[in-house]
Design a protein that fits this description.
With 354 residues, the chain is of the alpha+beta class. It has 14 helices and eight strands. The strands form two sheets. Strands 1, 4, 5, 6 and 7 form a five-stranded mixed beta sheet that branches. A three-stranded antiparallel beta sheet has the order 3-2-8. The longest helix has 18 residues. It is globular, with a radius of gyration of 24 Å.
Length: 354
């Protein structure tokens, strides 16, 4: 595959399908509205794409709506307090994205007058915007013919062309195939259409080939190999780390929390004082308690998985009096403490106190 006719016919077929079956997204301008002249807001497209990295659409919807209600423009976000943004981001994971979100918003305001540049190269120069996000914003927000390659598109391209090279080695070939099919007409709608196709029809398991608009030209369907593609290089097992966290509650209801360093895992997020997280083959580290107290080990433990390792945390809890001063962190009174502001692993520790 494919002759020149296919390179024009296949996008046209997919766009006809998308005009009928496009998913309804809070950040998306649907095909009918777009045809009527409504243009996507680059800020909303950028924000949604950053949120969607390593996260599902179902999870992102509520976060996106809260963010845009609180900060409806990139200028509003740029002026936000770091702690407020990190608090709203809590639970989405991959917290470097939130730090880069603020850096990018402020760069757009400082360097581009509060308007995202309609230029792919300029977008790539903004903090936290890599090739995928730049392509998504370029195509969806500005209708520029740049191919997007997320997991859905990789799967569609691998099956359409029956590419058996395992990921990630297959990425250059998959990108070349995606670029070849990206049309000059309606590239933004096409980018969303091919992602929708992968998300709703060409799914990882049990693809619905019978109702796929690309059913006939799909080489993997013809060969009977669709269910096994794309192939992936086996992952090495994740190591296990462990550690200890200290949860202190004052007798007035305040909780002892600290802001983690900007760099590193959970950078800039609220968290509980505790030990380093070390390899589980070594004795579990206790760390230094933030203050003298009658620390009790709570039943159970926190189990959480990060991108590169599994974590197990022992939780120690104590109630303390108001005259005790901590060696680290500060006590947040009940009216300033929201468990929802904690990253998921820290929220799991808090839940053990209930």
């Amino acid at each position: 595959m494919r002759d020149t006719d296919d390179l024009t016919r296949l996008p046209r077929i997919l766009l006809e399908w998308y005009d009928v079956h496009a998913r309804d997204m809070p950040w998306r301008v649907g095909p009918a509205d777009r045809k009527a002249g409504q243009r996507p807001d680059p800020y909303r497209i950028w924000l949604s794409e950053v949120m969607l990295q390593q996260t599902t659409v179902a999870t992102v919807r509520d976060y996106f709506q809260r963010f845009t209600a609180r900060w409806p423009s990139v200028a509003d976000l740029a002026a936000a307090q770091d702690a407020d943004v990190m608090g709203e981001w809590a639970g989405l994971g991959y917290y470097a994205r939130a730090r880069n979100l603020l850096k990018c918003a402020r760069a757009v305001v400082d360097q581009h007058g509060g308007e995202f540049p309609a230029d792919h190269a300029a977008l790539l120069k903004l903090p936290g915007i890599g090739p995928y996000t730049a392509a998504a914003v370029s195509s969806i927000a500005f209708d520029l013919p740049h191919a997007v390659l997320d997991g859905n598109v990789e799967r569609v391209m691998a099956r359409l062309h029956e590419i058996h090279t395992p990921l990630p080695a297959a990425k250059p070939e998959l990108m070349a195939r995606a670029e070849a099919l990206t049309p000059m007409a309606r590239p933004g709608d096409y980018a969303q259409a091919v992602m929708d196709l992968g998300a709703t029809i060409c799914t990882p398991k049990s693809p619905a080939c019978g109702i796929c608009p690309w059913r006939d030209p799909c080489a993997a369907r013809v060969a009977g190999t669709a269910a096994e593609l794309p192939k992936k290089t086996p992952k090495t097992p994740k190591p296990v780390r462990h550690g200890t966290v200290y949860l202190a509650q004052r007798n007035d209801g305040a909780w002892l929390l600290e802001t983690r360093p900007d760099k590193g895992l959970l950078g800039g997020m609220l968290g509980w004082p505790g030990s380093d997280w070390i390899d589980a083959s070594a004795p579990r580290p206790q760390g230094t308690p933030p203050m003298p107290a009658d620390w009790q080990v709570l039943p159970g433990e926190v189990r959480h998985t990060f991108t590169h390792f599994h974590l197990m945390l022992t939780v120690r809890y104590a109630t303390v009096t108001q005259d005790l001063l901590p060696d680290t962190g500060e006590f947040l009174p009940p009216d300033r403490f929201r468990p929802s502001d904690l990253p998921t692993v820290m929220r799991k520790a808090f839940d053990l106190t209930g």
